[in-house]
Design the sequence.
């Protein structure tokens, strides 16, 4: 597999409003790519379209996941194939036990891949070990999914899901949003710990501090539904110093 994700000329709209206006993006296996840009530039829309959210209509271009036509896959098929979306604002699921939710998701993925399901005892051992690396107390597994969780706990719970599901491509939609310094560090280190030849990530963020920990292989800047510039981690530092205005003017 030469690339885990290849996006070419991707256009998408919600209703009659075009948002993505021709995205070109390539993510090789084992690389972490960051997507930055001002509010309203289409970053979250890109993540939703790649994950298969139904209310966004693809109006042009293509996206392939490995050798598969990503846009022809149902959302659950994308998840089973190894695509994971971490939400900016994870939803609460009252009455749904966190451990049961995580084990159900893991076993659904394992069934789709023809693997044996994992029993409750083995799962709890696995989840507690992964949670410990994210500074998560064991009682978070006993609580309802995200109910009463702080912002940092919700985001750590998302990273715990990633650690258990082991996606090939993780898409993080501003996972650092609303985190204090300590929680941001824990989340960033949790994602960085997943780095492997068979793990890639597309990280949507506004924060240089997150990228200082993750050290992305590439940084892409979006504006008005297009990627207007790509570079190495130094590009994020340039944005931190000077903002987006000069880049947007250059691309105009």
Sequence:
């Amino acid at each position: 597999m030469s690339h885990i994700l290849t996006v070419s000329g991707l256009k998408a709209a919600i209703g009659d409003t075009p948002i993505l206006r021709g995205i070109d993006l390539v993510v090789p296996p084992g690389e972490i790519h960051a997507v930055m840009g001002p509010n309203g530039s289409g970053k979250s829309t890109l993540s939703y379209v790649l994950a298969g959210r139904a209310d966004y209509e693809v109006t042009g271009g293509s996206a392939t996941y490995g050798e598969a036509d990503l846009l022809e896959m149902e959302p659950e098929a994308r998840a089973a194939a190894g695509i994971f979306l971490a939400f900016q604002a994870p939803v609460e699921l009252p009455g749904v036990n966190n451990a049961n939710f995580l084990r159900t998701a893991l076993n659904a993925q394992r069934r789709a891949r023809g693997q044996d399901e994992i029993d409750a005892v083995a799962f709890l051992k696995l989840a507690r070990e992964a949670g410990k690396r994210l500074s998560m107390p064991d009682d978070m597994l006993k609580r309802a999914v995200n109910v009463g969780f702080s912002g940092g706990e919700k985001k750590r719970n998302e990273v715990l899901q990633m650690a258990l599901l082991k996606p090939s491509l993780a898409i993080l939609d501003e996972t650092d949003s609303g985190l204090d310094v300590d929680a941001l560090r824990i989340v960033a280190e949790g994602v960085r710990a997943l780095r492997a030849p068979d793990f890639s990530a597309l990280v949507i963020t506004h924060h240089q501090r997150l990228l200082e920990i993750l050290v992305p292989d590439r940084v892409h800047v979006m504006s008005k539904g297009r990627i207007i510039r790509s570079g190495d981690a130094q590009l994020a530092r340039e944005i931190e110093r000077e903002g987006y205005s000069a880049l947007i003017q250059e691309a105009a």
